Amino acid sequence: MTTKLFGEPIPRREDPRLVSGAGRYLDDLGPDALAVAFVRSPHAHARIIDIDVTDALDVDGLVAIYTYEDLAGRVAEPLPVLIPHPALHAPRTAHPLANGVVRHVGEAVAMVVATDRYVAEDVCDRIRVGYRPLPAVVGIDAACAATHRVHEDVPDNTAARLVQEVGDAPAAIAAAPYRLELELEIERSASMPMEGRGVYARWDAADRSLRVYSSTQTSTSLRFALATKLELPVDRVEVVTPDVGGGFGVKIVHPWPEEVLVPWAAIRLGRELRWTEDRREHFVASAHERGQRHRVRVGFDADGRLRGLDVTFWHDNGAYTPYGIIVPVITATQLLGPYRPGAYRVEFASLYTNTVQVTPYRGAGRPQGVYAMERTMDAIAQQLGIDRATVRERNFIQPEQMPYDHGMIFQDGRPLIYDSGDYPAAMAMLKELVGWDDFAAYRERARAAGRRVGIGLACYVEGTGVGPYEGAHVRVETTGQVVVATGLTSQGQGHETVFAQVAADALGVPIDDVTVVTGDTRRFKYAVGTFASRAAVMSGSAVALAAGKVRDKAVRIAAEALEADPGDLEIVDGAVQVKGDPAARIALGTVAALANPLRYSFDAQTALATQFAKAARVDRPPVADDDEPGLEATDYYSPIRSTFAYGMHAAIVETDPETADIRVLRYCVVHDCGNLINPRIVAGQVHGGVAQGIGGALYERLAYDRDGQLLNASFMDFLMPYASEVPAIEIAHLQTPSPLNPLGVKGAGEAGVIPGSAVLASAIEDAEGFRISRMPISPSELWELRQRHATGASPADRDPADRDPVDREGS
Amino acid sequence: MTEVRHDVRLRVNGVERSAAAPARRLLSDFLRHDLRLTGTHVGCEHGVCGACTVLVDGRPMRSCLLFAVSVDGAEITTVEGCRSGDGGLGPVQQAFLECHGLQCGFCTPGFITTITAYLAEHPDPTEEEAREAIGGNLCRCTGYVNIVASVLRAAELIRSGGRPA
Amino acid sequence: MKPASFVYHRPTDLGDALAALAEVGHDGKVLAGGQSLVPVLTMRLAAPGHLVDINRLAELRHVTVTGDAVRVGALARHTDLERDEPAYAVLPLLRRATAHVAHRTIRNRGTTVGSLVHADPAAELPAVLAVLAGEVELVRAGGGRRLVPAGEFFLGPLESAVRPGELAVSATFPVPPAGTGSAWLELSRRRGDYALVGVGVLVTLDAEQRVTRVRAGYVSVGPTPIVLDLTDAVAGQRYDEAAWAAAGALAATLVHPEEDIHATAAYRRHLVAVLTSRAAQRAGADAAGTGAGTEGAE
Ligand SMILES: Cc1cc2nc3c(=O)[nH]c(=O)nc-3n(C[C@H](O)[C@H](O)[C@H](O)COP(=O)(O)OP(=O)(O)OC[C@H]3O[C@@H](n4cnc5c(N)ncnc54)[C@H](O)[C@@H]3O)c2cc1C
Ligand code: FES
Ligand code: FES
Question: How far is the CA of C109 from the centre of ligand 1 (A)?
Fold first, then answer.
């Protein structure tokens, strides 16, 4: 191999297109398509009395109006429960259009098709829907109280209840020399990609085939779902993912109501249809995440070593559970981080409320779990008067204990076994990077100058690269060009570049000869999707495997042509050559031609493969029994279980002693995601994640009032950080290869965001000297806490609703 | 009742363009759907994200907060027009590519137009000024670190004659 | 999120504009920079039948400095005012406050006068007009003309004294007496956001550098811009020794802010005290000719 591309920070191959305005995002497609808009519920919970379209009918440009009554067959059924789970005893999903009852503001009630979106919205304005409001259930308290129900047939508003246990945690805690109980809360945020969702559908009536473009994180699965819903043979449905303007989780859910309705109506009308979600719709009609309340009971010894951990938490899943209970399941397992918990018990309830449904947002339950665990570590350190880093170090799983089996079941239904990692080394690196040991002196100097600063840290372990599988197809054209196709989609992570790096290395061709196609079911039909930091691990490995097969075949064919032993051949710069004798070489394009024994020729290259061109061996068929024509191969990668990346973050904050304004002065990251295919792209993923972590900790929340109205459904009031709110981010990488896959890689996509709330709560607590147990935190809330603290009412001392007799403050 | 259409003429990226559109057509939609210049993106339609930023007579503005008819006759520069004279990538585009200043690329057009206008007035910004210059544009992917670097790199490219050094 | 349809008028001189406004009356709205109006239309929170676009009235795009005032025409953009050197020379508060209005891209289109008419209690320029006791000039077809002082101009949240058929053609910001310094300070969640609390303070000193007058104008603490006279708290004290915190404390007792999703009422009141005291100190130093950095964000 001449130049190794694996590990090189090469520029991205998608960028020339994207920086010049030549990207093709969903709303850029189908300029002549009809436009779709929806009438959405203004009520959090209501019965639909009637829908009157009379006034709308004379709007010039109206094409069609649909309500639930118009739906039939499987389209009229509730949307699927994508990930059933034995503990999810009461799954509920929405109908594509509300069937008599609406359960959150924003739920679709009627669909309008018109000549353009302006007109479609005019029509929506004129459709009169009569509602009889029902009491709204908003927030965890109301859901638990169950005075009112979100779903008539779920009396306790509980979708799922799950307990996992390793050892006897309550007993271990009772027997521990020290005990603590904490109540820790985190509020909702949302993926909030800059591009909303969108669907564009074309029906070819003559061919009876459907092509759907969707801004989705899973085109392959959407294809199967649509074939099922629309009752079409799978091979009559194609789904294409164009350039995607960010997803961060929200676009993994499928099929969305709109993804079913737009193609359905396109078929009925025989017209091209496009729906582009606007920002207001995205706030009230897609998905949120994060809202959880945790009660942590912990027992530990005088050194701060955990004896037992007992966590109960309440997860607000919104009105529906299309994505099952993946988020709380991840919290329950990933809360453990890099620690040995002693005995562990976790129990959660997943609760219905009359708010937007909850599905994974980058991090997917981990930010909450890490927050609960790391706040607990800080509390232990504080209780014992031990340095916060030291307490963590004492509880770390040691490198020689890898692989480490927690004895639990992970979100993929497989055992929770960490594959590799060196947590003590990472902690040492972080302390060095942020200057942990010198900070106390700095804090004192700052205080003397009237400034208030604090430092915080947090650790996490992240199961990445979850199965079941991904695949790839690699084909060498007779021109020597290599085409790689994966079913997996991209949402901006640079897959075109990273997969090309892997393929070019595995094949021995220049990267400029490689083209990558992602997320187009015409090119690759089987895939799971882009989520859970799995693309590099899963598809990267599949590309390496498929490219390896192609390489082997090329060598075999070339050996015959060169009359050499396959073992003496290598591929260099796009040609197969005899090791040590570069003159004896044959271009891959030629090998590709030879790989397809032809009757007909189209050019000089293919002429080489025609039946009279070469001295044919007549003792066997032109294509062997176990062979196929063409220099191409498909392969799949399916791991035994997830691989576990990890990281540790530290932040230094300054809080204004008077205004309580909070500024992040420094943000440091130590990160280990195994081997790095492209370090520049990994760093970019971390940067973006950190910004979302800071957003979630200090700025973003979804503020519902008691009636279930979302009060901040706009970018004016849902405060995603601008450049002015994100500091420079300092990163150090460790690389502990994963033993589980051929590339030794682990996922990196979610890492940056996970410890955000934990680390900033820790730093603010350090600056202020009182416990922070509710995130996100605004200057106003910090100031209110100061007032309460000054009057002696520490927020951590709030009574949990149903506490049982455990010592609150140690023994 | 059919809606009245107005003839809107703009000089877009140096080319005279015109189309008939209702008065309520936002400039962002006019560029994207009437002129089919889809490089300008729409992220919020209420003026906050900056994805739709274009230059109107040289000044960056939110195209989602302008009616096309209201800027009839104006000179408009979109991301498609931020190329260099010879049709290659312009210096700001080149800098984004070199510095990994984008991931999904959805916010990128708004940054590129904003930065192009900014550097025309401030050829040699400090890092802090670079951060301030992009302060009105949202990006959900990059954490801005590499966008700040892109501003500085673009300034360098422009100072050295617009060519990658 | 697309606006409802409307009838579009694009007058090219003031007379035609006034005629158009007279014709459409209650059913019409002026379109200036559109930076507040367009989002309202796009979200269909309003759907006027007519828009009268004043962007062709070149005669209204001016910033004029007379001896004792800065007059800003209805088509002057925020950026025009912010960058106007003669205006800054006589009334630096204008630039200091305008720099906090949204981000550059918005300021390039939005107008100062539009901001006054829009009368958002969270907006900077209404508070500046109020603290300077300026006035707005309103005209209508047929020669009707009113000069409305700031104190009577802001009637409530998003409600100004402009009546249907009227056009605000200019606003006048009086230059405060000699010896006056100014400062603008605000705290917002993100840079460029509307402020949680913002304050513009004017401090006037006598020849001995003693405080003779303190006036403060606030955003986001009431339904309209709030103006307070805080002179009593520090009168007669030298600017570099004055108990500015007392001015802040006094201010906090005089305001009645409300709670929203970004801040509690008590916190806002507290910010009034802190920001007033800091801004007054800076304004005092500015008056004494030693002030610097008053353009900074807080
Ligand atoms: C994202 C964003 C952030 C913002 N942040 C801030 C901020 O921090 N601080 C701030 O102060 N502002 C902020 N603004 C608002 C901005 O300053 C507006 O430009 C300003 O409020 C209105 O000016 P305009 O010229 O755009 O008026 P328009 O939007 O055109 O009009 C506003 C209203 O005033 C009326 N009107 C306008 N001009 C006249 C006139 N001459 N005579 C009669 N009626 C008239 C209109 O009919 C309309 O009702 C922000 C806007 C956006 C989009
Ligand atoms: S789309 Fe115009 S600012 Fe967001
Ligand atoms: S690159 Fe995706 S939003 Fe900026």
Answer: 9
The domain in which residue A223 lies consists of 19-24+33-134+191-285
pTM as predicted: 0.94
What topology is assigned to C180-288 in CATH? Enolase-like; domain 1 (3.30.390)
- Find all residues with CB under 8 Å of A342, minimum gap 6, and list them: A167, A169, A172, A299, A305, A306, A307, A308, A309
Provide the pLDDT for residue A805. Answer: 34
Q: What are phi and psi of C290, to 5 degrees?
A: -110, 0
> What's the pLDDT at A617?
67
User: Tell me: the pLDDT tens digits for C129-166?
Assistant: 999 999 999 999 999 999 999 999 999 999 999 999 99
Q: What is the ipTM of this complex?
A: 0.96
- Please identify, among A637, A656, A683, the residue that sits at the C-terminal boundary of a domain: A637
Q: Tokens 């706040």 map to which residue?
A: A375
Which residue in B has a C-alpha nearest to residue C107's C-alpha? B61
As a whole number of angstroms, the distance between CA B22 and CA A117 comes to: 13
Q: What tens digit of pLDDT does each residue of A160-207 get?
A: 999 999 999 999 999 999 999 999 999 999 999 999 999 999 999 999
Determine the Cα–Cα distance for residues A193 and A720; give it in Å rounded to an integer: 11
Nearest to B141 among A11, A243, A246 (CB): A246
Residue indicated by tokens 């084909």: A475
Q: What is the mean pLDDT of residues A557-572?
A: 89
Specify the fold of B83-159: DNA polymerase; domain 1 (1.10.150)
Q: How far apart are CA C154 and CA C119, in angstroms?
A: 6
- The residue among C283, C292, C68, C291 whose CA lies nearest residue C181 is C283
- With an 8 Å Cβ cutoff, is B73 touching chain C? no
User: Is A151 contained in some domain?
Assistant: no
Output the average pLDDT for chain C. 95
pLDDT digits (tens, 9 = 90+) for B44-58: 999 999 999 999 999
**CATH number of the domain that residue A400 is part of:** 3.30.365.10
- 3-state percent helix, strand, coil for chain B, nearest multiple of 5: 40, 20, 45
H or E, element range at A546: helix A540-562
pLDDT-derived band at A798, boundaries 50, 70, 90? very low
A573 interfaces chain C, CB cutoff of 8 Å: no
Q: Running DSSP on this structure, what letter comes out for residue A536?
A: I
CATH 3.40.640.10 fits C7-53, yes or no: no
Pick from B1, B51, B80: which is nearest to A20 by CB? Answer: B80
Residue A153 within any structural domain of the chain: no
What is the edge-to-edge ordering of all strands in the sheet holding B5-12? B15-22, B5-12, B75-77, B53-56, B59-62
Give domain limits for chain B: 5-81, 83-159
Contact assignment for A22 to B39 by CB distance below 8 Å:
yes
Residues A538 and A477 in one domain: yes
Q: Per CATH, the architecture of C58-174 is what? A: 2-Layer Sandwich (3.30)
Q: Supply the DSSP symbol for A640.
A: S
Report which bound ligand comes closest to the CA of B144: 3
- Give, for ligand 1, the residue of C6, C14, C26, C30 to mutate: max count of ligand atoms closer than 8 Å to Cβ: C30
- Provide the percentage of residues in chain A whose pLDDT is more than 90: 74
The answer, yes or no, to whether residue A803 has pLDDT greater than 80, is no
Q: Give the gap in angstroms from C-alpha B82 to the nearest C-alpha of chain C.
A: 17
Q: Within an 8 Å CB–CB cutoff, is residue B156 touching chain C?
A: no
**From start to end of A334-377, where are the E strands?**
343-352
> Could you tell me the distance, in angstroms and rounded to a whole number, from the CA of residue B46 to the centre of ligand 2?
6
Listed residues A255, A285, A315: the one ending a domain = A285
Burial C87-111 (b: 16+ CB within 10 A, else e): bbebbbbbbbbbbbbbbbbbbbbbb
Distance between Cα A245 and ligand 3 center (Å)? 7
| CATH for the stretch B5-81 | 3.10.20.30
Amino acid at A237: V
A704: closest chain C residue by CA: C261
Tokens of C114: 């539009």
